[in-house]
Design brief:
The complex is a heterodimer of chains A (538) and B (994).
Chain A (H helix, E strand, L loop, with lengths): L1 H11 L5 H4 L10 E2 L9 H5 L1 H4 L11 H6 L4 E2 L12 H7 L7 H26 L6 H26 L2 E2 L11 E2 L1 H15 L17 H13 L1 H5 L4 H14 L23 E5 L12 H5 L4 H5 L12 E2 L1 H4 L7 H6 E2 L1 E2 L20 E2 L16 E2 L16 E5 H14 L5 H13 L11 H5 L7 E4 L2 E3 L10 H11 L5 H7 L8 E2 L15 H6 L12
Parallel strand pairs in A: 12-14
Antiparallel strand pairs in A: 2-6, 3-4, 5-11, 7-10, 8-9, 12-13
Helix pairs in contact in A: 7-8, 8-9, 9-10, 10-12, 10-17, 12-17, 17-18
Chain B lengths: L9 H13 L4 H6 L5 E9 L9 E4 L5 E3 L5 E6 L4 E5 L6 E4 L5 E6 L9 E4 L2 E4 L7 E5 L22 E4 L10 E4 L12 E4 L2 E2 L10 E7 L2 H4 L10 E6 L6 E16 L8 H9 L14 H5 L4 E12 L3 E13 L6 E15 L4 E16 L8 H9 L24 H7 E18 L5 E20 L4 H5 L5 E24 L2 E24 L16 H4 L4 E21 L3 E12 L8 E12 L12 E15 L10 E3 L3 E4 L2 E4 L2 E2 L10 E14 L4 E13 L2 E5 L9 E5 L2 E17 L3 E18 L10 E4 L11 E4 L6 E4 L2 E4 L5 E4 L5 E3 L9 E5 L4 E11 L2 E11 L2 E4 H6 L37 E3 L2 E14 L6 E15 L17 E2 L7 E11 L1
Parallel strand pairs in B: 1-7, 13-16, 49-53
Antiparallel strand pairs in B: 1-4, 2-3, 2-5, 5-6, 8-9, 10-15, 11-12, 13-14, 15-16, 17-18, 17-54, 18-19, 19-20, 20-21, 21-22, 22-23, 23-24, 24-25, 25-26, 26-27, 27-28, 28-29, 29-34, 30-33, 31-32, 34-35, 35-38, 36-37, 38-39, 39-47, 40-41, 42-46, 43-44, 44-45, 47-48, 48-51, 49-50, 51-52, 52-54
Helix pairs in contact in B: 6-7
Chain lengths: 538, 994
C-alpha cells in the first residue's frame, strides 16, 4: 500500500516536493520546543520556575483558606453578594471538608507541580545545557534543593504522609511517612545551608538564602513533635540562634513596615517572601479584594474593587482577644467606619443599602452575614491604583518568626527567656499607645489563652465545648496577634492543641484526624498506589 | 373544432394575468369566442417555477395541439369540457381540465423516481439508488423559504437526525448544529461543512446561492472524510449556470422586523416600591419609573437584497451574484451588515476533454460590538433586567445614574458609552481542472485558499461605568485575526457499466494546511474620548505596563490518501467500500497516521423481477453500512514538549522571564475513533406519493481525547491530553414524505421527520489513565459558583447534578434530600448529597412540514419540537430569590411561596436545587410563509411576493423565554441568564426573475 502511495505521490508532486506532501512535523510559532530552547547564561531562566508555584500560598482559593479559614482567627462566611462557593469555606470552618474540595485539589496540583519543577530544574542544571560557570550551577542546585524542601515541608504539614519524589523518574509513587519526610528534609537543609549565601538584599529577595533555609529548618524543628511525636526544642533554639547571631536581620521599626507594597527588597525583617507584581502577571495576592467591601475601592482609591461585600473576616472572638492598645489591631484589621477621601463615610450597597459602611466586630454565626459584619484585611498595604491582583508581597519568614520560635521553644522546654523575646516583638506595637504594656513575662506566657472559646448563634455567645485551659495559651495568643493573615494559624492551633478540640463561632470539633487534609480524590483515583489518609472515606 | 394558435402580445398576457389576480376570469375574451370554443392561454413551468420550453400541449383525444414558447407560454382553442394533455421529455404528463378557466398555470413534475435523485457523496455524486449509506439530500425547491440567517436554516427540520438549534436572536450568532447525538468529549461537535468540496463555515455562503444540501450521516458515508467525519458531513452545492441557457437574472428583496417572544416577569417600579415599603433588606427607592428593558430594546428593521446572474453558451457557463444583508437586532445597536459577492466560470475545451473552473466567493461582514471582543454585550441585557426600576436613567446633573456595585451597571450607559466594530472579510479562491482522457475517466485537481481577516476595535468613554469604577479616562482595545486554509486535492474516478455490472473506482490525495494568527492589545487613560480606538498610542496604560497585549499563531497540516470502490448489478445489488489513510501534524510522532475504512451494501428489492407485479411499491431498498471516522484534538502541539516563557520571577533583584514546560506533553497522542454501524430502508409507495426512510445506528467512540487526570507526582501538571474512555450513541430516524393531494390546481406535500438518540459514556479510563470516572461540567456563574452537570461512566452526557429540594422549612430555607434519603437543610449540604436531577439533552425530535400550492398561491408551514429533556432555568435560579434584591431587581416569583408554604428567606443564599429544573418539551410553529407567484410573458418572467413569520408560536410548559436553549457540549440544557432574547420575525419579500 505504502509503495503505491509513493508512486502515486511522485506523479502528483514534482519530485523535490514529494517530501512536503506527507510532511507532518509541527511548526511552532508562539512557543519554543524543549529540544530547541537555548537556556543562555542567566541561570534564572532555567530555575525561575521553582519559585512560581509559591504564589499559591496567599491565594485565598487555594492555600490561604485551608490555613486560615479552618482555624479560629479567620472565617469566610457567605453573604447576599455570594461567597458561598459551593460551601467550601463553610466546610473549612465546620471541619467537614471532603476529599473532593476544589481548594485541596488546586493546592495539591500547584505545590506538587512546584516539586516536580524543582526536580526538572535540577535535571536541566545537571544537563550542561546552561552557559554558566560550574560554581553558579552548583550554587543553583543547592538553592533549588532548599526550595524543594520548602514545598515538601508545606505539603507534609497539610497532608501528612505524601509521595516523596527526589528525581524525575516516572513512577507511580506511594506515600512516604511524615517522619521520614521530615528526616529527609532535615538532611537536605543541613546539606545546603552552608552552601547558600548569608547575604540579604534585592539580589536575594524572594529567594532561598541561608537565612531562609535556617528559618525553614527551625520551623520544622518547632513542629517536629506534631510531625513525628518527638520534640526537637533544643535544635529549634540552636537554629534560631544561628539566624540571630548572623546579625543579618532585625525587626522593622513599625509593624506595618513589614507589609508594605514597595521597598521591601531592603527590609531587614524579611527572611523569605513571595514577590507579587501586577504588571508582569506575577499574580496571586488578592486578599484585599476577597476581604474588603466593594465600596472600599473608593476608600483606598484602587482600580479594580473588591467583589461584592467581601468575605474574609476576623472571627469576632479572636478580635476580642486583642489588647485595645495593641497597635497591631489597627494595623491588621479594617474596622469601624470606612472613610472616603472626601471625609464622608462610605455607604452600604447591598442588604444594608443606605446605612453607613461601618465594619462591626459581630456576626450572627460563621455561615451567613450582613454586608458590614466582621473586621476585614488591613494588614498588607493596599496601594492607590492597585488592581485585583496587587503588587504587595507576602512574607513567609520574618525575623519576628525567629524570635517567636525561639521563645516558644524556650517556653516549651522549660527554659527562661521567652518573655524577653516576645517583649522584643511587642515593643513596636505598644510604643505609641502604652509602652509599658509591651512587657510580657515567662510566667504570663505559660498562662491560658484569652480566647473565649464557645459557639455563637444569632449573635449570642455560649461558652460550650472544651473549656479547659490552653497550655502556653498566652504564647498562642501572641502568635495570633503577630502573624494574623500570614498562614500560621492552622499550624499554631494544631501545635497548641486547639484546632480539633475547641468551639468557635459556628465551628465544633469534627475529629482529631482533621489535623491533616485528605488527599485529593482525583489523585487517589489516578494513582492506585496512593492510599487516602485515615478516616477520610472519600 | 379548429386549431388557432394566436400569439398575444406580452402586454396582453400581463393584462390577462392581472385579471386573473383580480379574481375576474377573463370574461371579455371568452365572450368573443363562441360558447364551446375559446382561446385559453397558459404557462407551463417546472417545480422550480422555471418555464418549460417546447412542451407539447394537446387537447386530449385529438391531434390538436401546440408547443410552449421560450417563456413556457402557450395559447390554444378549447371547449369547457376539454382536457389538455401537457407533456415534455423528463416530466410526468399532466392532464388538465380546462373548465371555465381562460388562463392556466400548469406545473410539470419532473418524472424522477425517488431513487433516481442525484445525491452528492464524498468526492462525487451518485444516484440515490446506488447509495448504500445514510445520506440525506435536500434540493433548493424543498428548502425552508428564505430569507434565513444562515445556510443551515434552509434545511432546519428537513433532515431526520440533524438538529439545528437557534438559541437566540442576535444577528451575529449562527445556529447550533448537531447530528446523531454527542460523540466526542472535548472536540467540536459541529459537522464538517464542505462548500463545493472546500471546507468552510455555513455562514461563508449566502443561503440564496445554494442549490442543494447533502448530509452524510453515518460512518460508512463519512469515512471517506476520515478524521473530520465523526460529526457527519454537510455538503453544500452552490447554484451553477447551465450550458446553452440564455442569461437569467434573479432579484430578491425582503424587509423584516421582530418582536420579543416573551419578557421575564421582573418587578416593575410600582411593585418594587411596595417591596421597599415593606422594608425588605437591600431595596431602595430612587423615585423614578424606568422600564430599563424598553430603554435598550427597539423595533428592528432588516433588509436583504440579492441579485444573481447565471447562464451559459456552448462551452462556457457562468454564475455571478451579489447580496447585501442589513440586519438589525432587537437589542439596540446590535446588527450585522454583510455583502456576499460570488463569481464562478466554467469552460470546456478539446471536445469536453478538459474542463476548467475558477471562482471567488466570500463575504464582508461588519457589525457593532458593545463589549470587548464580543458582539452584543449581554451585560446590557442583564443589567436592564436587574437595574432598579425606580432609578432614573440620568441624575439631575445630566450624568448617568451610577452605583459602585459589582456587576450592577446602568444599562443605558453601557449601551451608549461603549462600542466599536468588528470588520471581517472572507475570501475563498478556488479553481479546478478536470481531464477526461477517455470516456468514464475523470482526473480532477482542485486548489483553493480561503482567507479570513478580522479587524476589531472597541472603546469605552470616560463616562462608561467601567471607566468610572476604575477611575480611568477611556479604554480601548484593538485586535486582528487572520486565518488561511490552503487545500490541494487530486482525484481520479473511473466509471464503467458492462452488461448490468456497473462499477466505479475513485482514488485521491489531499493536503490541507490551516494557519491561524491573532493579535490583541488594550490601552486606557486616553487624553480624549474623540479618537476612540483609532489612536492606541496616546493611551497611558500600555506605557505604564498596566494594559496588556498578546499575539499568537498556530498551524496544522492534514494529509490524506483515499479511495473508494462502488459496484452494482442491475441496480439491484450495491456494494461500496472506501478507505482513507490520513495523517495530522497534531499527533504524537508514533501516531501521526490512521486508517478509516468503510463498507456498505444495499439491496434494491423493488428492482427484482419478482417484484414487477407489485404495483403499489415503487421503491424498496435495504441498506447496511459500517464505517470508522476520527476526531482530531482541537489544539495543535499537544504532543510536543514545549517551553512557556510567559511567566516572570523576581530573581537577582529584577523581574525576569523564565522557561517552564507548558503542559504534560503526550507523544502517544493519537486519533479518537468512532465506529458506526447503520442499517436502513428506503421505500416509495403509490407512484412515490409516499416515500421515506428508516435508519438505525449504533456509534461507538473509542480512545476519547480528553484532559485526563494523571498522577502528580510524577507528572508536572495534573491533567494531560490523552486517549482513553469510550462513548456510545444509539438512535433511530424516520423520514416520511407524503403527497396527500395532487391536482392541477392544488398540491399538498407533507413531511414528517422523527429522530431519537440515547447516549452513554461507557468509560472514562483505560490502563494508562485511571480517572475517578466522572467530571463536573458547566457553571452557574457568580454568585453561586457551582458546577451544573456531571459526566460519569455508565451515564448519559447531559446529566444535571445538584441537590434535590424536597421541601422548605418554616423560615424559608430549602430542605434537600440527603445522601441517606433523609431531609436536611441545604445549609448543611455536603457534595455527597448531590444527585442526578435531570438531563439537558432532548431524547426526541419531531418535525412536521407542510406545503400547499393552489394556483399561484403557495403556503408552507414548518413545525418542530424537542421532547424528553430538562432545562435549568437560570433566570429563575438567579433572580427568583429575595437575597438577590441586594444585587438588584428580582422576579416576582421571589416572593411567592415555595412548595405552597412560605417564600424563600432573605438570608437564603442562592442554591442549585432541582426546583429550578423544568421540563423543556416544546412544539413550535416555526415558519409560516404565504406567497403568490405571477408568471409573465414579458421581460419580467416571474414575480413572487410573500409574507413570512418565523418563530410564530411555541407550545411549552417551560416558563422561561424560549425552551430552544443550547444543547451542545457537555453542559447542555442551561437557559443562560444573560441569553440574548429570542424573537418572532415578520418578513415581506419579493422575488423577480428576468
Amino acid at each position: 500500500m505504502k509503495k503505491t502511495f509513493k508512486i502515486f505521490l511522485s506523479i502528483l508532486c514534482m519530485a523535490p516536493m514529494a517530501g512536503a506532501c506527507v510532511d507532518l512535523d509541527e511548526t511552532v510559532y508562539s512557543e519554543v520546543t524543549e529540544a530547541n530552547f537555548e537556556y543562555g547564561t542567566n541561570i534564572g531562566t532555567a530555575m525561575g520556575m521553582v519559585y512560581k508555584d509559591l504564589k499559591v500560598i496567599a491565594d485565598y482559593t487555594k492555600n490561604f483558606c485551608l490555613q486560615e479559614a479552618s482555624a479560629d482567627a479567620i472565617v469566610m462566611p457567605a453573604n447576599s453578594t455570594g461567597w458561598l462557593n459551593q460551601g467550601e469555606y463553610r466546610r473549612l470552618h465546620h471541619h467537614s471538608w471532603t476529599s473532593e474540595e476544589p481548594t485541596i485539589e488546586a493546592f495539591w496540583n500547584e505545590f506538587f507541580g512546584g516539586i516536580v519543577k524543582c526536580n526538572s530544574a535540577l535535571d536541566i542544571l545537571n544537563s550542561g545545557r546552561l552557559q554558566a560557570s560550574r560554581d553558579e550551577v552548583e550554587y543553583a542546585k543547592n538553592e533549588v534543593r532548599a526550595v524543594r524542601a520548602f514545598y515538601y515541608w508545606y505539603v507534609t504539614d497539610l497532608f501528612g504522609d505524601v509521595p516523596l519524589i527526589k528525581g524525575s523518574e516516572q513512577v507511580m509513587p506511594e506515600k512516604t511517612t511524615r517522619a521520614e519526610i521530615c528526616e529527609y528534609l532535615e538532611q537536605e537543609l543541613l546539606t545546603v545551608i552552608p552552601a547558600l549565601t548569608e547575604e540579604t538584599g534585592p539580589a536575594q529577595y524572594g529567594r532561598m538564602t541561608r537565612g531562609a533555609a535556617r528559618a525553614l529548618l527551625a520551623t520544622l524543628y518547632l513542629n517536629w513533635e506534631v510531625y513525628t511525636g518527638t520534640p526537637r526544642w533544643e535544635d529549634c533554639i540552636k537554629v534560631c540562634d544561628d539566624v540571630i547571631n548572623s546579625r543579618k536581620y532585625e525587626l522593622e521599626r513599625n509593624y506595618k513596615d513589614a507589609f508594605k507594597a514597595s521597598g521591601m527588597e531592603t527590609s531587614p525583617e524579611i527572611i523569605f517572601t513571595i514577590p507579587y507584581d501586577y504588571a508582569t502577571n506575577a499574580w496571586g495576592m488578592r486578599l484585599h479584594v476577597a476581604s474588603l467591601h466593594s465600596e472600599c475601592a473608593k476608600v483606598y482609591d484602587i482600580i479594580e474593587g473588591p467583589w461584592g461585600s467581601g468575605c474574609i473576616s476576623g472571627v469576632p472572638q479572636f478580635i476580642d482577644t486583642y489588647d485595645t492598645d495593641d497597635g497591631r489591631l489597627e494595623d491588621t484589621w479594617a474596622m469601624g467606619p470606612q472613610i472616603l477621601p472626601n471625609g464622608q463615610t462610605a455607604k452600604c450597597a447591598y442588604d444594608r443599602k443606605g446605612q453607613d459602611l461601618i465594619f462591626v466586630n459581630e456576626m450572627p454565626d460563621g455561615d451567613y452575614v450582613a454586608e458590614n459584619e466582621g473586621y476585614r484585611m488591613h494588614k498588607f498595604e493596599i496601594e492607590a491604583g492597585a488592581h485585583q491582583n496587587s503588587s504587595t508581597d507576602y512574607p513567609l519568614f520574618r525575623y519576628a518568626d525567629i524570635l517567636m520560635m525561639k521563645a516558644e521553644a524556650l517556653l516549651r522546654s522549660g527554659q527562661a527567656g521567652a518573655g524577653a523575646l516576645v517583649t522584643q516583638v511587642r515593643e513596636r506595637a505598644f510604643r505609641d499607645s502604652n509602652p509599658s504594656k509591651a512587657t510580657v513575662t515567662d510566667d504570663q506566657l505559660l498562662g491560658n489563652s484569652s480566647y473565649k472559646y464557645g459557639s455563637v448563634k444569632n449573635y449570642v455567645y455560649t461558652p460550650d465545648g472544651d473549656q479547659s485551659p490552653v497550655k502556653f495559651g498566652r504564647m498562642y495568643d501572641e502568635l495570633g496577634w503577630e502573624f494574623a493573615w500570614e498562614c500560621h494559624r492552622r499550624r499554631d492551633a494544631i501545635r497548641f492543641g486547639v484546632y480539633t478540640t475547641k468551639n468557635w463561632l459556628s465551628h465544633t470539633p469534627n475529629g482529631d484526624y482533621r489535623i491533616v487534609f485528605p488527599l485529593p480524590e482525583d489523585q487517589i483515583s489516578a494513582n492506585p498506589n496512593l492510599k487516602q489518609n485515615p478516616n477520610y472515606v472519600n | 373544432m379548429n386549431l388557432k394558435t394566436t400569439r398575444l402580445s406580452g402586454a396582453a398576457a400581463l393584462l390577462l394575468s392581472i385579471f386573473a389576480l383580480a379574481g375576474h376570469p377573463a370574461d371579455a375574451l371568452a365572450a368573443e369566442a363562441d360558447q364551446t370554443d375559446r382561446v385559453v392561454s397558459g404557462i407551463v413551468v417546472d417545480s422550480n417555477r422555471e418555464p418549460v420550453v417546447g412542451a407539447s400541449v394537446v387537447v386530449k383525444g385529438t391531434t390538436e395541439g401546440t408547443a410552449t414558447d421560450v417563456n413556457g407560454y402557450f395559447e390554444i382553442l378549447v371547449g369547457d369540457d376539454d382536457v389538455l394533455e401537457v407533456s415534455f421529455l423528463g416530466f410526468s404528463t399532466a392532464d388538465v381540465n380546462v373548465g371555465k378557466s381562460s388562463t392556466l398555470n400548469i406545473t410539470l413534475r419532473e418524472d424522477m423516481k425517488f431513487l433516481d435523485e442525484v445525491v452528492v457523496v464524498g468526492y462525487g455524486t451518485q444516484r440515490k439508488g446506488e447509495v448504500a449509506s445514510a445520506i440525506a439530500s435536500v434540493k433548493s425547491e424543498d428548502f425552508i423559504a428564505t430569507p434565513t440567517n444562515d445556510a443551515i436554516q434552509l434545511v432546519k427540520g428537513k433532515i431526520p437526525g440533524l438538529q439545528v438549534n437557534t438559541t437566540d436572536a442576535n444577528p451575529t450568532s449562527s445556529s447550533e448544529i448537531s447530528l446523531r447525538g454527542i460523540t466526542t468529549l472535548s472536540s467540536s461537535t459541529s459537522p464538517l461543512v464542505l462548500i463545493d468540496g472546500i471546507p468552510g463555515d455555513l455562514n461563508t455562503v449566502s443561503p440564496s446561492d445554494i442549490e442543494q444540501i447533502d448530509v452524510l450521516k453515518d460512518g460508512s458515508a463519512a469515512a471517506i472524510y476520515g478524521t473530520r467525519g465523526t460529526n457527519g458531513v454537510i455538503l453544500v452545492t452552490t447554484k451553477k449556470g447551465k450550458l446553452d441557457t440564455p442569461a437569467e437574472v434573479d432579484f430578491n428583496a425582503s424587509v423584516s422586523t421582530q418582536q420579543i417572544t416573551r419578557t421575564l416577569p421582573f418587578l416593575n417600579a410600582e411593585e418594587y416600591r411596595s417591596i421597599v415599603a415593606q422594608g425588605v433588606p437591600g431595596t431602595w427607592d430612587d423615585g423614578a419609573n424606568t422600564d430599563w428593558l424598553d430603554e435598550v430594546m427597539r423595533t428592528p428593521v432588516s433588509q436583504i437584497y440579492n441579485v444573481s446572474l447565471k447562464g451559459g453558451g456552448k462551452n462556457t457557463n457562468y454564475v455571478a451574484s451579489f447580496e447585501y444583508r442589513g440586519l438589525q437586532g432587537i437589542m439596540k445597536q446590535s446588527n450585522t451588515n454583510v455583502l456576499y459577492p460570488r463569481i464562478e466560470i466554467t469552460h470546456r475545451m478539446f471536445d469536453n476533454m478538459l474542463k476548467i473552473n475558477a471562482g471567488v466567493s466570500g463575504y464582508q461582514r461588519n457589525y457593532h460590538v458593545s463589549g470587548d471582543g464580543s458582539s452584543f454585550n449581554t451585560e446590557i441585557y442583564r443589567n436592564a433586567l436587574i437595574y432598579n426600576p425606580t432609578t432614573p436613567i440620568y441624575q439631575e446633573d445630566g450624568s448617568y445614574s451610577y452605583m459602585a456595585k459589582n456587576a450592577y451597571d446602568n444599562p443605558v450607559a453601557l449601551l451608549e458609552e461603549g462600542g466599536g466594530e468588528h470588520q471581517k472579510t472572507y475570501l475563498r479562491m478556488y479553481s479546478d481542472i478536470t481531464l477526461t482522457p477517455i470516456e468514464g475517466l475523470d482526473i480532477k485537481a482542485l486548489v483553493s485558499s480561503s482567507v479570513y481577516n478580522s479587524a476589531e476595535g472597541y472603546y469605552e468613554t470616560s463616562k462608561h461605568p467601567n471607566s468610572i469604577r476604575a477611575t480611568r479616562t477611556g479604554f480601548a482595545s484593538r485586535g486582528t485575526v487572520r486565518t488561511q486554509d490552503d487545500l490541494l486535492e487530486v482525484t481520479a474516478q473511473y466509471r464503467k457499466t458492462i452488461e448490468g455490472h456497473s462499477f466505479s473506482v475513485m482514488a485521491g490525495y489531499g493536503w490541507q494546511k490551516n494557519h491561524y494568527q491573532f493579535y490583541w492589545m488594550q490601552n486606557y487613560d486616553f487624553p480624549t474620548d474623540e479618537t476612540t480606538y483609532n489612536n492606541m498610542g496616546t493611551g497611558a496604560a500600555l506605557k505604564a505596563g498596566d494594559a496588556e497585549e498578546y499575539s499568537y499563531a498556530q498551524e496544522d497540516v492534514l494529509v490524506s490518501f483515499f479511495g473508494r470502490i462502488n459496484y452494482s448489478y442491475k441496480d439491484r445489488y450495491v456494494i461500496a467500500a472506501s478507505l482513507r489513510h490520513e495523517g495530522s501534524s497534531k499527533f504524537g510522532a508514533n501516531h501521526k497516521w490512521g486508517n478509516f475504512p468503510s463498507v456498505s451494501v444495499a439491496w434494491n428489492v423493488a428492482n427484482e423481477p419478482f417484484m414487477e407485479d407489485v404495483d403499489f411499491l415503487t421503491a424498496l431498498k435495504l441498506r447496511a453500512g459500517y464505517g470508522v471516522t476520527g476526531t482530531i484534538p482541537t489544539n495543535p502541539y499537544m504532543s510536543l514538549s514545549r517551553v512557556n516563557l510567559g511567566s516572570w520571577v523576581f530573581f537577582n533583584g529584577e523581574w525576569m522571564q523564565f522557561a517552564e514546560p507548558s503542559t504534560n506533553a503526550n507523544p502517544e497522542l493519537r486519533w479518537e475513533k468512532k465506529k458506526e454501524f447503520n442499517i436502513g430502508v428506503d421505500f416509495g409507495f403509490l407512484n412515490d406519493r409516499i416515500t421515506g426512510s428508516f435508519d438505525y445506528y449504533n456509534r461507538n467512540t473509542v480512545d476519547l481525547i480528553w484532559n485526563y487526570t494523571v498522577p502528580l507526582p510524577p507528572y508536572m501538571y495534573s491533567t494531560m491530553t490523552a486517549n482513553a474512555g469510550s462513548m456510545r450513541n444509539e438512535g433511530f430516524e424516520v423520514g416520511l414524505n407524503f403527497i396527500p393531494v395532487q391536482t392541477r390546481d392544488f398540491q399538498w406535500t407533507s413531511q414528517i421527520n422523527y429522530s431519537t438518540n440515547s447516549n452513554i459514556l461507557t468509560s472514562l479510563s483505560n490502563d494508562s489513565f485511571i480517572s475517578s470516572g466522572y467530571s463536573d461540567q458547566g457553571s452557574t456563574g457568580e454568585p453561586l459558583q457551582q458546577s451544573t452537570h456531571r459526566i460519569q461512566e455508565g451515564q448519559p452526557i447531559g446529566n444535571f447534578y445538584g441537590y434535590k429540594a424536597i421541601d422548605i422549612d418554616d423560615t424559608g430555607h430549602w430542605i434537600i434530600e440527603g445522601k441517606d434519603g433523609q431531609p436536611k437543610s441545604v445549609n448543611d449540604a455536603v457534595p455527597e448529597d448531590k444527585q442526578v436531577i435531570g438531563n439537558g439533552l432532548p431524547k426526541h425530535y419531531l418535525n412536521f412540514n407542510n406545503s400547499f400550492t393552489y394556483k399561484g398561491f403557495d403556503l408552507s408551514i414548518t413545525m418542530r419540537g424537542a421532547f424528553g429533556y430538562d432545562i435549568l432555568n437560570m433566570p429563575r435560579l438567579q433572580y427568583g430569590a429575595p437575597s438577590m434584591l441586594s444585587r438588584g431587581n428580582v422576579l416576582k416569583e421571589a416572593f411567592e411561596p415555595k412548595f405552597g408554604k412560605v417564600p424563600l428567606a432573605t438570608d437564603q443564599a442562592l442554591a442549585y436545587v432541582d426546583y429550578y429544573l423544568e421540563k423543556g418539551d416544546y412544539w413550535k410553529i416555526d415558519n409560516v410563509t404565504l406567497g403568490y407567484t405571477f408568471n409573465f410573458n414579458t421581460w419580467v418572467k416571474r414575480l413572487r411576493i410573500y409574507a413570512m413569520v418565523q418563530n410564530l408560536a411555541t407550545i411549552t410548559g417551560y416558563s422561561g423565554i424560549d425552551p430552544e436553549v443550547s444543547v451542545t457540549g457537555l453542559a447542555p440544557g442551561i437557559d443562560n441568564k444573560n441569553r440574548y432574547p429570542s424573537t418572532r420575525t415578520f418578513t415581506l419579500g419579493v422575488s423577480v426573475k428576468f
